[in-house]
């Protein structure tokens, strides 16, 4: 199950969305550079025009790639990494009930991570075992 899945954290998702926004914000400047280069005339030897067109094509490809990845890979599972206390349990079950109508499998990491430790500090083996041992909440 773990080897076939692609995991993306909230930070990873936010990073992808941030990159999309940054790339989209660059398009007007690139378009202005293309317009300025066009005004110079002869396009055969207009390096600024060709460089700007290449940059715009690169930006457009990357935006399409990121948006396609986000759209083509629907959320099938939400893995919760919450504390093993009453509040963590209540939050887990609340989220599981809220996401159930969307056919999203809500799981919780196996209890192998030290309480209060962020996932970024867990070693690969512990995190792998916690993912393998996760249990569905509904």
Give short descriptive properties of this protein.
single chain; 138 residues; mainly alpha; Helix Hairpins; Dna Topoisomerase Vi A Subunit, Chain: A, domain 2; 2 domains; 3-stranded mixed β-sheet; 4 helices; elongated
Q: Would you kindly provide a written description of the structure presented here, covering whatever features stand out?
A:
- With 138 residues, the chain is mainly alpha-helical.
- The chain folds into 2 domains: 10-72, Helix Hairpins; 77-136, 3-Layer(aba) Sandwich (Dna Topoisomerase Vi A Subunit, Chain: A, domain 2).
- 57% of the residues lie in helices and 7% in strands.
- The protein has 4 helices and 3 strands, in the order ααβαβαβ.
- The chain has helices at 10-38, 47-72, 86-99, 124-132, and strands spanning 77-80, 105-108, 135-136.
- α1 (10-38) runs antiparallel to α2 (47-72).
- The radius of gyration is 23 Å and the shape is elongated.
- The mean pLDDT is 79.
Topology, please?
Elements: H1 10-38, H2 47-72, E1 77-80, H3 86-99, E2 105-108, H4 124-132, E3 135-136
Parallel strand pairs: 1-2
Antiparallel strand pairs: 2-3
How does the helix and strand content classify structurally?
mainly alpha
Strand order of the largest sheet: 1-2-3
Oligomer status: single chain
Largest sheet: 3 strands, mixed
CATH fold-level name of the largest domain: Helix Hairpins
CATH architecture of the largest domain: Orthogonal Bundle
The N- and C-terminal alpha carbons lie at a distance of 18 Å
Global morphology: elongated
Radius of gyration: 23 Å
């Amino acid at each position: 199950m773990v080897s076939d899945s692609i995991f993306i954290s909230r930070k990873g998702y936010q990073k992808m969305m941030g990159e999309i926004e940054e790339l989209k914000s660059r398009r007007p400047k690139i378009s202005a550079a293309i317009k300025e280069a066009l005004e110079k005339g002869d396009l055969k030897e207009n390096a600024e025009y060709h460089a700007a067109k290449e940059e715009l094509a690169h930006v457009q490809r990357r935006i399409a790639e990121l948006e396609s990845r986000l759209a083509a890979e629907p959320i099938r599972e939400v893995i919760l990494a919450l504390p093993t206390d009453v509040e963590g349990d209540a939050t887990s079950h609340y989220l599981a009930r809220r996401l159930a109508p969307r056919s999203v499998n809500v799981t919780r990491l196996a209890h192998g991570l030290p309480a209060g430790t962020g996932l970024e500090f867990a070693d690969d083996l512990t995190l792998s075992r916690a993912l393998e041992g996760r249990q569905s909440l509904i």
